[in-house]
Amino acid sequence: xxxxxxxxxxxxxxxxxxxxxxxxxxxxxxxxxxxxxxxxxxxxxxxxxxxxxxxxxxxxxxxxxxxxxxxxxxxxxxxxxxxxxxxxxxxxxxxxxxxxxxxxxxxxxxxxxxxxxxxxxxxxxxxxxxxxxxxxxxxxxxxxxxxxxxxxxxxxxxxxxxxxxxxxxxxxxxxxxxxxxxxxxxxxxxxxxxxxxxxxxxxxxxxxxxxxxxxxxxxxxxxxxxxxxxxxxxxxxxxxxxxxxxxxxxxxxxxxxxxxxxxxxxxxxxxxxxxxxxxxxxxxxx
Length: 286
Hints:
- InterPro entries: DUF3716.
- The chain is mainly alpha-helical.
- The protein has 2 domains: 14-171, no CATH class; 187-285.
- Helices cover 45% and strands 5% of the residues.
- A 4-stranded antiparallel beta sheet has the order 3-2-1-4.
- A hairpin with a 2-residue loop joins strand 2 (127-131) and strand 3 (134-137).
- Helix 7 (187-220) packs antiparallel against helix 8.
C-alpha cells in the first residue's frame, strides 16, 4: 500500500513570476525611490494575476495599473526574506499582487493604521489605496484583514482627510527610478497616446468583424475547389489575427505607464495585424 503523499509531494502551480531574477530586496524604514522591484511588480507576471487571455483579474488591479509607482516595496526587517522568496509570496494569491501594487502606487498615511501600529504589517510604510468606493492600507489587504484596517470605511467615505498625504497626479515621478520631486510634465501626452492606442485597437476590431463577415460570405458561395482553398486560408489568417488582437489588448494594459521598449512592442503588434488584414483583403478579392 503506497504511503499518503506529503504536502511537498503535491504538484503546485509555480508562484514565481517568469520575469523574476534575484533582486536585492529593500528592507527597513528608509523610503526607496521606485526601481527594479517596482518595474517587476507593474508587469503583473504572476499566474494568479491574469486570466488565460491575459486580462488582469479582479476589480483592483485593472485600476491600479494606471498609477505610476512612487516607491519600492520596503519590507520590515523581521520578515527575513530574500528576493526570490518574496516574489513567490506575491504569486501565492491575487490579494498579494493587489497589496504589493497598492504599496508602491498608493498614498502614504501620516499616521499608521491601528493594525500597523500593533506590528501587523508586511511593509515598513502604511500606504492607503482606494477600491470599490472604499479604502484600506496595503498591509491589511496583504493579510486578508482589509475590513479590520482603521482606514476602512464600507460606506466609501474618506476616513480622515488629514490622515492622508495624497499626492496630486502632477507630482507622480516621470518614470521608474526618478526622484519624487520631479514633475510629470508629459502626462498629458502619455494619456493622449494611450487613448489613441485604444481607439486604433477598436478600429482594428471593427475591421476584423468586417473581414469575418466577408469570410462567411465567401464560405457560403465556395462551390469551386479554388473557393474552398481560399476559404481555408481565410480561416487560418483569421485565427492568427484573433491571437494578435488578444496580444494587443494585453499589451495596452501594460503600456499605459510603459517605457519606450514596451510602446515599440505594441506598435510592432499593430503593424503585424495590419499586414495580416491586408493579406486577407487580397485573398477575398481572388
